[in-house]
Design a protein that fits this description.
436 residues; alpha+beta; seven-stranded mixed β-sheet; elongated; binds zinc ion
């Protein structure tokens, strides 16, 4: 430990006596020095070893000391370092070397336990960098303390592995992430940092009772498919309907954009103004909107055909059985006119590539209550992502008090994860976008 200037601060005269400054039961301050707006406190540990922790002999001899700096909560908004002198003992019987220890210290992070607690309560309101500056450590230290605490809290949550698990990709805080859901319970059970294969492998490699997962719903992302096929070979993979049908929506939009190229400004504007109507499902339109669509179809026959193909593709998913859906799909393929082949044949190719998991949708009945609500939640999370780091946002969602779906059973409770609907309600109650 090096202390350059010894300008004894106004602490003693102000409000605190040196002996009281730390208020830790087993650590006694001996001196205090201010240096570059940081407080350095020299201290000793008051508890002593009476027995060897290996052979329980009481024949111990003192054998020098070792000074280690532990960070503590700020005093007068200045960082604090406690330079603690640890007594070293040697057991005369077994020659074991032991050091004094203290109930007030977190040896893993070289901090007082109360500082760890302080970080954990402040980290939701403050940025990691701000907190690091206040405490006098680097950002990585804050991140480590936070991650460690979150892991402990998450283990305590003990979330039940679902039978129907959803892997949903989202773009959050600058990166593609995976939201893991319990599809039937409409809950979030985890959020993975990236969507890459290694992260997913690690997640499913550690999940409790992975064999309980019977169905996995996902988008058409080959690495996810490969991971699930390898780790849970008995689980049935179902491609999320929303991922499939949106291909038809995108194809129709491309047709519309291409038509726009040859139009006057006024005509282009008319088409753009009606974009929302074209994207909306036909059965959801008002009679007035339906008339507008009819007009557009007459004005732009190719767009009209693309519109019908979009609607037809969506309708495949209305069929109650796999057989009927497959038949509807074949009929749909036959309706693609040569002029629209460039736009819609890629859909046929994708469906052929993912045929089995796409049509698995029709042979597995599960209650998919998550889809729409999850999309809504993702939008809100994206707004929140501007205020929080990914780690904070993840832990907020997973650990948020009162939002867990708990099923009471005789003798124990089942925790199904964070309810998407309750999360949405809680987010709605927030007055400002950056509070939770
Ligand atoms: Zn011993």
């Amino acid at each position: 430990m090096t202390i350059i200037s010894k300008k004894n601060i106004a602490l003693n005269s102000k409000l605190v006596q040196l002996s009281d400054i730390l208020q830790l039961s087993d650590i006694q301050p001996k001196d205090i020095i201010e240096e570059n707006n940081c407080y350095h406190i020299k201290a000793i540990i008051t508890s002593e070893f009476k027995f060897c922790n290996k052979c329980f002999s009481n024949n111990l001899s003192k054998n020098g000391t070792r000074v280690i700096m532990y960070r503590d909560i700020p005093i007068h908004n200045n960082p604090v370092g406690i330079h603690i002198s640890f007594q070293r003992y040697q057991c005369k019987k077994c020659h074991n070397t032991i050091y004094q220890d203290s109930l007030s210290l977190d040896t893993k992070h070289l901090m007082t336990k109360r500082l760890v607690e302080y970080i954990y309560t402040k980290v939701y309101q403050r940025k990691f960098t701000e907190l690091a500056l206040e405490i006098g450590v680097n950002e990585k230290t804050i991140r480590n303390v936070f991650a460690n605490n979150v892991d402990i809290q998450l283990k305590l949550l003990d979330i039940i592995t679902p039978e129907v698990l959803g892997i949903n990709e989202i773009h959050l805080v600058g990166n593609s992430r995976c939201v893991i859901t319990n599809v039937e319970q409409a809950t979030v059970i985890d959020i993975l940092k990236t969507r890459n294969k290694a992260i997913l492998m690690s997640y499913f490699g550690h999940i409790k009772k992975v064999e309980n997962i019977k169905i996995v719903t996902m988008g058409m992302w080959q690495p996810h498919f490969n991971v699930i096929s390898a780790i849970i070979p008995d689980a049935k993979i179902v491609i999320d309907k929303l991922h499939v049908v949106k291909m038809a929506l995108e194809a129709m939009e491309k047709v519309q954009k291409n038509i726009c190229k040859g139009l006057t400004y006024k005509e282009r504007k008319q088409l753009k103004d009606n974009r929302y109507l074209l994207l909306t499902r036909h059965y959801q339109l008002t009679p007035m909107d339906k008339l507008t669509i009819e007009d557009l179809r007459m004005q732009y026959p190719l767009l009209g055909q693309a519109y019908l193909l979009k609607e037809g593709f969506y309708n495949i998913w209305n069929h109650p059985t796999k057989k009927e859906a497959e038949r509807a799909y074949i009929d749909w393929c036959k309706q693609i006119p040569i002029e629209l082949a460039d736009y819609f044949i890629p859909i046929v190719n994708t469906v052929e590539n993912w045929y089995k998991p796409i049509f698995n949708y029709f042979t597995n009945s599960y209650n998919n209550a998550t889809g729409e609500a999850l999309n809504e939640l993702i939008k809100i999370m994206n707004r929140k992502g501007r205020c929080y780091s990914f780690e904070v946002l993840r832990s907020k969602i997973l650990l948020i008090h009162g939002a867990h779906k708990i099923q009471a059973l005789p003798g124990f409770n089942k925790n199904h994860g964070t309810s998407i609907q309750i999360l949405l309600n809680l987010f709605e109650l927030e007055s400002t976008p950056c509070q939770l």
